Amino acid sequence: MLRTYEEKKVKIQDEILEIGNSVVEALELTLTGLKDEDLSKLKEIDLSVKKISNKSNEIDNLIVTTLALYSPEAKDLRELVSYLKITNELVRAGANTKAFAKIFRKAFSDDLNTKTILEYAIPLQKSATLALQTSMSMLKETNSKHIEEKYQRVIVEESKTDDLYSMIEKNILKLISKNLELSKEYFDVLSALRKLAKTADRAASIANLLLFAEMGGDIEQSK
């Protein structure tokens, strides 16, 4: 029975990773588009929030069935509870990533101060991507020390996205005051970048959940 439970857990982990990796790949593609200043690459993002949501529901059902059949205790129970919450975080991360690509591509143009925007957008994108990559790498990590180290890395990157967003917000508000006719485009750019910062928030939530699964204590959800 133990082996069967472990097989179920591995299947759950693999399917969660499948969702997480699809979002990470989309983030990596958007990062390449920003670095190359080729936003046509943002059109190539094949990320269906509906499919992610459906897959998430399938995983949740598998988790609930596993809980019912095996009645896990202690760490095993914490893991399954964490996975149940992580699927929702990944749906939100996927929705934020797709929204960023769509809104940013439509709003960004040579009429705007592209140099200022990209000066902050690229490092913000890097941190959001690294945060989610690192949080997903915690899923199958078995070394408690490494889990804690990766958790700290995620929190650092998430904090960077908040700082970078605050800085670009100030700069864009200054640009709007000088170019009121472009205010909608600038506000749309800000909205898109806020989606990126929220993706990093979701990564931090996932890292918190996986730390809880390993160490116990209280579940701390990010904003």
TrEMBL record:
Coiled-coil ranges (or none): none
Residue ranges of the PhoU domain? 16-102, 129-209
Family annotation (SUPFAM superfamilies): PhoU-like
Transmembrane feature ranges: none
**Family indicated by similarity:** Belongs to the PhoU family.
Protein name, entry field = PhoU family transcriptional regulator
